[in-house]
Specification:
Shape: globular
Number of helices: 15
Strand order of the largest sheet: 2-8-7-6-5-3-4
CATH architecture of the largest domain: 3-Layer(aba) Sandwich
Strand content: 5-15%
Number of domains: 2
Helix content: 40-55%
Bound molecules: pyridoxal-5'-phosphate
Order of helices and strands: HEHHEHEHEHEHEHEHEHHHHEEHEEEH
CATH topology of the largest domain: Aspartate Aminotransferase, domain 2
CATH superfamily of the largest domain: Type I PLP-dependent aspartate aminotransferase-like (Major domain)
Length: 386
């Protein structure tokens, strides 16, 4: 066999914990609350619409920036929700999921040696995207157990090389949401330094307890230096369709599209037309998401009452963190694997969302599941004792 030198561009990246936990869940026939996707169907009307557009012949490349009708509907939605004007022609780009939008945003903005501030725990695609661009991730942890951000600590990390701050609200995995005051702090930093913001808002419609989502789009002085990323996978229960989008002012959009056109060029056509129609016909599906998922969160929490786990309050997303510090002092990866093997419930250990595996003895459960799934999972979790 011939050997050849091969130096990995991502030497620290291996099989993700999501793949590991899902495989373990399957092996042990466990209930899978690890990966973040619904175990129920999306609206059948949405499926009919995709079918309709396929039959109608919308099966070739979509325009590079996305189907104009979908960009127009997103513009209307953003205006109604956040009072912001985004021009569909020059400020909205449809991407193949939020992951693609994040990758294009980072690639467009980050050059060799640029520093990017990443707030941990962080979604796993951020750091590899930064490193592939030759950027340097500078990580700052949220405070535990409040998962609030200490802005003074963040300020101390800023220097001449700082190019981007990445934020995520509502936040995966903690369910924390940034407040209006947080945005005011961010605005101050961005205003006085030559820094851009990449704002991952894929859970924008899943906010609980009457809170308002503090979208960057609500803050014009921030929005001019920001790329906002969202995903229909989360909003329409269609994570497998991989349709997302990026909102940004024209100069930033121009740079983002330069990357997008060579990453995927465009996003699947019939899905774009179907989603555009659906947004017009079924707007209540989006508006109803917060109540829909709040009911699931509350149901899961009720079922877990009296268990040995301690829930960590979540204000958004479809994830619930639970501390198992009262049960065991095992590391969280070992605990999550044992939970899967012995109690047949799969979760995600939160340390994997930190670059250097910070372990607070917390695991993440996804509650985007049918009531029956949640009920069975909670019954099993109630058996776990110290
Ligand atoms: C915080 C966050 N950002 C981005 C994504 C990726 O979204 P998409 O599936 O649309 O690529 C996810 C998916 O889990 C996520 O949780």
């Amino acid at each position: 066999m011939q050997t050849y030198p091969l130096s990995s561009k991502l030497p620290h990246v291996g099989t993700t914990i999501f793949t590991v936990m899902s495989a373990l869940a399957q092996e042990h026939q466990a209930i899978n609350l690890s990966q973040g996707f619904p175990d129920f169907s999306c609206d059948k009307k949405l499926i009919s619409l995709v079918n309709h557009y396929m039959k109608k012949g919308h099966n070739q490349y979509a325009p590079m920036a996305g189907a104009p009708v979908l960009r127009q509907r997103i513009s209307t939605l953003v205006k109604e929700l956040y009072g912001a004007d985004y021009d569909p022609e020059t400020e909205i780009t449809i991407t193949s999921g939020a992951t693609e939008a994040l990758f294009c945003a980072v690639t467009a903005l980050v050059k060799e040696g640029d520093e990017v501030i990443v707030i941990e725990p962080a979604y796993d695609s951020y750091i590899p995207a930064i490193e592939l661009s030759g950027g340097v991730p500078v990580c700052i942890p949220l405070e535990y157990p409040s998962y609030r951000l200490d802005w003074d600590k963040l300020k101390r990390l800023i220097n001449q090389r700082t190019r981007v701050i990445m934020i995520n609200t509502p936040h995966n995995p903690t369910g924390a949401v940034l407040s209006e005051q947080d945005m005011v702090e961010l605005e101050r930093l961005v205003h006085t330094n030559n820094i851009f913001v990449i704002s991952d808002e894929v859970y924008e419609h899943i906010v609980f307890d009457g809170l308002q989502h503090a979208s960057i789009a609500r803050f014009p002085d921030l929005a001019v230096k920001s790329i906002i990323v969202s995903s229909f996978g989360k909003s329409l229960h269609t994570t497998g369709w991989k349709v997302g989008y990026a909102l940004a002012p024209p100069r930033l959009t121009k740079e983002l599209r330069k990357v997008h056109q060579f990453v995927t060029f465009s996003t699947s056509t019939p899905f774009q037309y179907a989603i555009a129609d659906y947004l017009q016909q079924q707007r209540e599906a989006i508006d109803g998401l917060r109540a829909f998922y709040q009911a699931k969160r509350d149901y899961f929490l009720r079922l877990m009452e009296g268990s040995a786990f301690t829930p960590i309050p979540a204000s958004g997303t479809y994830f619930q963190l639970m501390s198992y510090a009262g049960i065991s002092d095992e590391g969280d990866e070992a605990f999550a694997q044992r939970l899967t093997r012995e109690y047949k419930v799969a979760s995600i250990p939160v340390s994997v969302f930190y670059r250097y595996k910070t372990d607070h003895k917390v695991v993440r459960f996804c509650f985007a599941k049918n009531e029956q799934t949640l009920k069975e999972a909670a019954e099993r979790l109630q058996q776990v004792k110290a």
